[in-house]
Amino acid sequence: MTGMETLRRWLDESERAVFFGGAGVSTESGIPDFRSADGLYNQKYDYPPETIISHSFFLQDPEEFYRFYKEKMLYLDAGPNAAHRKLAELEEMGRLAAVVTQNIDGLHQAAGSKKVYELHGSVHRNYCMKCRKFFTANYIKKVEGVPRCDVCGGVVKPDVVLYEEALDSSTVEGAVEVIANADLLLVGGTSLAVYPAAGLINYYARDRLVLINKTPTPYDGRANLILEGKIGELLENIRL
Ligand code: NAD
Q1: Residue 48: its pLDDT value, please?
Q2: Mean pLDDT across the stretch 136-141?
Q3: Is 34 a residue whose pLDDT tops 90?
Q4: Tell me: the pLDDT tens digits for 146-180?
Q5: By the 8 A CB rule, do 86 and 107 touch?
Q6: Looking at the predicted structure, is the pLDDT value of residue 36 above 80?
Q7: 186 Cα to the center of ligand 1, angstroms
Q8: Pocket test for ligand 1, best of 34, 74, 100, 159 (most atoms within 8 A of CB)
Q9: What does the pLDDT average to over 111-125?
Q10: Which carries the bigger pLDDT value, residue 36 or residue 11?
Q11: Could you give the domains of the chain?
């Protein structure tokens, strides 16, 4: 049986599969990832991206933070691709219990996924740091320079987990619970290099761990099935 046939059969048999993904899920939607050869980490900036998108940098130099963030992390015209759509379909069919994502682009929800744990937050939620007023991603994109609250003048911050910041504990607890109860764990489009997010897959306790990636990951030795390729193209070809 080929790898694709095995995955098709396992998905067909599953009742509470979980998908765990990262930036590679959205590259086929035109959003660059961080660690591919043409990803953000291999482009040149005045500071390394890890520095710019850190909590202390945000407070110290919000102008520069927002210059980078708006240009490189806010892709408001991007739409879901075949991977997002297939995962939404699997949930609708009662095969998939949840999506756990490191992405901040909201494309799983745009494709119709209902149960989504966003470990690193979302560009679609933004709050005034003083009065907590909510702002849309469009507001952030359109405003010149640092977005400020139209009511109190406070700086508006995206609800995105920056380096040095902790993950939201209820989101992590929810993700751990669905992963621990999963009958199949499908991991795709993530380098599994960002912690603590990557460590969550250690909560999966069964023997249907599937990895889909263009390149090897540190967890390849643990996988029961590895499919190498583009996740959108691969999932699109699975007929259930
Ligand atoms: P990463 O950039 O570290 O790794 C992406 C991985 O996906 C790589 O291993 C790459 O080979 C693989 N990949 C790229 N395109 C693929 C495709 N079409 N099919 C299969 N595999 C593909 O991403 P990460 O592990 O998610 O960690 C980076 C962090 O950056 C995350 O915390 C995330 O929050 C953030 N991020 C998010 C977005 C987004 O929301 N779309 C984009 C960039 C970065």
Answers
A1: 84
A2: 97
A3: no
A4: 999 999 999 999 999 999 999 999 999 999 999 99
A5: no
A6: no
A7: 15
A8: 34
A9: 98
A10: 11
A11: 1-30+80-120+162-240 (3.40.50.1220), 32-74+126-160 (3.30.1600.10)
pTM, rounded to two decimals: 0.96
Type of residue numbered 8: R
Residue with the nearest Cα to atom 2 of ligand 1? 34
